[in-house]
Amino acid sequence: MKPLRSLSGLLDFDCAARWGSFKLAAQELHKTPAAISQQVKHLEETVGFALFIRHPRHITLTEKGQELAITVGRMLAELRAKIGALQGGNEEAILRISTTHSFAIKWLVPRMHRFTKLYPELDIRLDSNDAPVNLEDDSTDVAVRYGPVSAGDPEMLFRERLIAVYSPDLLAAGQAELTLADLPNFPLLYEKTPESWLQLLAENKALKGKYDFSRGYSHWGVLAQAAVAGQGIALVAYGIAFQDILKGSLKQINCRSAPFGSGYRFLVNPRKQNMPKVQRFRAWLVAEMDDMRRTADQ
Known about the structure:
This protein is 43% helix and 20% strand. The chain is of the alpha/beta class. It folds into 3 domains: 8-86, Arc Repressor Mutant, subunit A (Orthogonal Bundle); 90-159 and 262-297, D-Maltodextrin-Binding Protein, domain 2 (3-Layer(aba) Sandwich); 162-252, 3-Layer(aba) Sandwich (D-Maltodextrin-Binding Protein, domain 2), CATH 3.40.190.10. The chain has a 5-stranded mixed beta sheet with strand order 4-3-5-12-6, covered by helices on one side. It has a 5-stranded mixed beta sheet with strand order 9-8-10-7-11, covered by helices on one side. It has a two-stranded antiparallel ribbon with strand order 1-2.
């Protein structure tokens, strides 16, 4: 196996992998397609395996090529982030936030203007991604992640609870609200599995009944949107449904919540935990979630 002596081949490979084309990669890098193809060929000879399957009019990554493309793409993103920070010369002016798709869309983005109004000097970089985040590199300053939480966890921001919600469009003429007794009349929407619905029904002594668990969703945000669209009654995390409840797009069924042990945690790049921008963002998050918690308890 030959040692990798140049990064130029990796740059050309990354570009070709993103575009699925030597021609388009050449346009981005201001080279000729032949030059890109030659660099990739040299890289394949060095690593000892094929990176692309070459078709008459396009190229596709091999299985090993896909794995390498993911690693190279991540490495180059970290490198560009670091160079950008050094070029900017003011690390305190940029706040890089990573969080999940559902939390970003349904909770953070709708209220982010309140944070930027307090700190207009900050350049916000928000990455919504459900994949695990590497807090050891400089591409991320802070992360808000959803998962199991325990009492006393210093990283815990908010312990979630599951609530049953529905669109006002589901109400019949003259009907003021839906109750647990109405559940058999509608599809019951859930995230991934209906297990939490069964727990809520057991908590409210309402297991007896014919229920329609026919609609599952992969993410809380999609589930909440399905409820807003009137596709059924959803069991969703309170934080995700909160804005829609405030706007009146969703109504909440009055019942006991199911036992639930998940919530949101605040994670920090260990080299940046004492930076004012990080401390300000955490303080703002805590205040916003305290407001939401007080509303939930009313």
